[in-house]
Amino acid sequence: MGSIATSPTVGRAPRVRRGFVIALVVVTALFASVLLIRALRKPEPLEEAAHTVLSALVAGDARTLMKYVTPEEREAGGLAETTLQELLDRVFMPVFGGCKLQKTSRWEYSSDTHYIIEGELSCEGGKRMLVGADVASGDTPVCPSLALSIVTEVVAARGRQTYPGLDSALAQYKAFRDLKPVLETLRLKKVWFGYKGRALSWDEIEARYRQRAEEAVSPS
Asked: What residues have CB less than 8 Å from 154, skipping those under 6 apart?
């Protein structure tokens, strides 16, 4: 019997198709990996970060809040998880502890690089209180001055509660003076003021409150 001739292209065709499929799978996997890496590196949206910070504040959760502390506040301000937790436990929670976050609203002057929200809290005795969260953009969202903002929120709340009939600036000055003996016993001895680019002592913060109070009550 005569042999049947086989074309060389018939044997190569399956191998070519397999090679093409393998190459396609490899390229697809690489493309998916690039998309995944970009997604993982994409900064947390500012709105989401602000809500996380606000919820962590109300819960007194220093570990979560430390994710949003700037390197400058860690280094120059000396803020660490232990000192932040102490600040929360001894300063923030005595005022806001037991409160539940009811709703939030975005401040109208928030922007694409700076997001500020205010939370309305329901507290014991039917009290309604307000607390804010402030985050700014960067490689990841950060709180420009976390420890200082905590003290500011507490002073504002204590001023409203303790000195309701006074001008707000004077009430806050008096509230800070009431709070200062507690602040001076903390391991945290100064707080980072991001907008000034330096850390402030408790005495310097008191001086700022005093200046505002004097300006508020002085004749124009």
From this structure: 91, 92, 95, 96, 179
Q: Backbone dihedral region of 60: left (phi > 0), alpha (psi from -120 to 50 degrees) or beta?
A: left
Distance from C-alpha of 50 to C-alpha of 58, rounded to nearest angstrom? 12
Alpha carbons 199 and 70: distance in angstroms, whole number: 13
From its phi and psi, is residue 84 left (phi > 0), alpha (psi between -120 and 50) or beta? alpha
Residue with tokens 């969260």: 133
Task: Give the SS3 label for residue 189.
Answer: coil
Picking from 137, 150, 139, the residue whose alpha carbon sits closest to that of residue 47 is 137
**pTM score > 0.90 for this model?**
no
pLDDT tens by residue, 142-155: 999 999 999 999 99
In contact, 135 and 50? CB cutoff 8 Å:
yes
